[in-house]
Every structure is written in structure tokens, then in C-alpha cells.
Amino acid sequence: MGKHKSRQPGSSGRTKGTGRSIRHEAYEAEDRPKPSGEPPPAIHLRQLRAAQALEKLEMQIFLLQRRGARQVLVVHGKGLRSQGEPVIAPLVQDWLRAHPDIVASWQPAPRDWGGEGALVVALRKVQP
Fold first, then answer.
1. Contact 76, 96 (CB under 8 A)
2. What CA–CA distances, in Å, run from 59 to 15, 86, 91?
3. Contact at 8 Å (CB) between 72 and 61?
4. Does 47 have pLDDT greater than 60?
5. Contacts 24+ apart (CB under 8 A), 98-105
6. What is the pLDDT of residues 54-108, one digit of tens each?
7. Rounded CA separation 30/8 (Å)
């Protein structure tokens, strides 16, 4: 039959594209929950300088909290273009820790919403 064998119709061998990819199975095995529905309102801080990012974060979190948002997606990026260590992500986490009256909790975003480059932040209700 030569060097290249051809598959016979009805053979038990799998055909190309019918199996799940390793990447797909790894995503299903992640500990983080899969996103349900649309992502919450987003605050994009990528490619901003530290002072600009903190100013924008504070202003938009206060605004979204007053509008009744329960969650916010903070997109800070992975810091791949930073000189050395990432800059924005640690600043964002420090700011969130410093404001427990506004921020109830936060966690890494699901992969579809930005993964390691974003945080899902749960906001507290505005006290009258």
C-alpha cells in the first residue's frame, strides 16, 4: 500500500477535528468559574501611566458604585510592556485593599473576560 495509507470509510480511527484540543480541556479544568452572560462594566487601564491609571480607577469606581453597579471589570493588562515588573496591576490591588468601604472583594477575571490581565471587583452598596 505504499508509504501513505488512506483511511477506509467506516474505520474506527478518529478523523481530523473531531477531538477536543488540549487548550479546551485545560480551560474546562480551571478553578475559576466560567463567565455567565455579559461582563460587568469595564474600566480599562492598559497603557496608562501609574498616576493616570489610579485617577481613572478611583473616578470610575465611585461613579459606577453611585449608579448601583455590583461588579466592575478592571482591565489592567499583564504588564508585558513594562520595564521589568508589571506596574499597574500591583497599584490596582493596593488601591482596592486601601478602600474596604467601597470594595467588598476581588478575584482574577475569567479567561473570556481578560484572565490574568483583569480583575472582577465586587462593590459595596452606597450607604445613604
1. no
2. 54, 22, 15
3. yes
4. yes
5. 102/61, 102/62, 102/65, 103/61
6. 999 999 999 999 999 999 999 988 877 667 778 899 999 999 999 999 999 999 9
7. 38
Give the amino acid at 60.
Q
Got the DSSP string for the chain? --SSPPPPTT-SSPPTT-SPPHHHHHHHT-SSPPP-SSPPPEEE-TT--HHHHHHHHHHHHHHHHHTT-SEEEEE----TTSSSS-SHHHHHHHHHHH-TTTEEEEEEPPGGGTGGGEEEEEEPPPP-
Task: Pull the grid cell for residue 5.
Answer: 495509507
State yes or no: pLDDT of 124 exceeds 70.
yes
> What's the burial of 43, exposed, middle or buried (CB within 10 Å: 0-12/13-18/19+)?
buried
Look-up of cell digits 474546562: 28
Cell of 60: 470610575
Stretch 116-120: mean pLDDT: 91
Neighbours of 5 (CB within 10 A): 7
Cell representation of residue 91: 497599584
